[in-house]
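User: I'm writing a tutorial on reading structure tokens. Could you give me a worked example: one chain, its sequence, then its tokens, then a sentence or two explaining what the tokens reveal?
Assistant: Sure. Here is the example chain.
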Amino acid sequence: MSKGSFLSGRLGLAGARIPHADRHGLLWLSRGKLYVENGTLLFLAAGSDEIDPGLYQIPYQMVSMILAGPGTTITHDVLRILARHGTLLAAVGEGGVKLYTAPPMGQGRSDVARAHARLWADEKERNRIARKMYAWRFGEVFPNRDISVLRGMEGGRLREAYRLIAQRYGVEWKGRRYDRENPEAADIPNQAINHAATFVEAAADIAVAAVGALPPLGFIHEDSSNAFTLDIADLWRVEVTLPLAFSVAARVLKNRELSLEREIRYEAARVFRKKKLIPSMIDQIKELIHVGDDSRDA
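And here are its predicted structure tokens:
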């Protein structure tokens, strides 16, 4: 997007064509100062490839969540005014590859949490949603079986996906190996998968926080404090995580002077924007939990 496409002086979700803003009300800001003056939320942009230098008014009443990227400073008054109006604020990495902070759910968001809890607490519904997630991932409806059986079927399909995607990018693949105590001991393809998975999980963290769902209540994953985040991230393992990992691994294997983590982080930010990954995740969460854009707390 060219700099000239922005309207000077005001950022409006519909009129100013803000980078990465969408119908979910996510507003991405980076490289500037966010502050309040005379009750108005302002962003003083230093300038980047996405936005001209200048001063912009932020219509926080129309924004559900502000995502503050690298180079953003925020005053105390911003936190106060956003909290008063129930607008979420999170510090994120470029393109959403990291989630550093996120506040509790904003006002009027308990409908999603309550719907999520109801579905999770019903064993039949929990299994149905798990099967739906598997159907999205693998293009087929899994049989109505115990979750442990479904996980076993998932494992077989994933092993084949690893092999095929590695082959596509010309990467020698010896199998998935990951030592949590010593992750750097893995070969480059496995390290690449670890990094790519971390970035996709951060995107899922942002989506879950934006919707107001409950991270611990996973339908496939269990025990983890962000089990539902892992569920959502896994929906994109074959489409995003593995191609991201193996494409960059191939590049680094040809040039060992490159930093694997940095190359994947930059490529992830580009892919997330191109695929509109976080808005797509939000749509998936709403479909799973049966909550639409027009939902309101009772």
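What the tokens reveal: Residues 1-21 have pLDDT under 50 and may be disordered. Strands lie at 26-29, 32-37, 40-45, 54-57, 65-68, 72-74, 88-92, 99-101.
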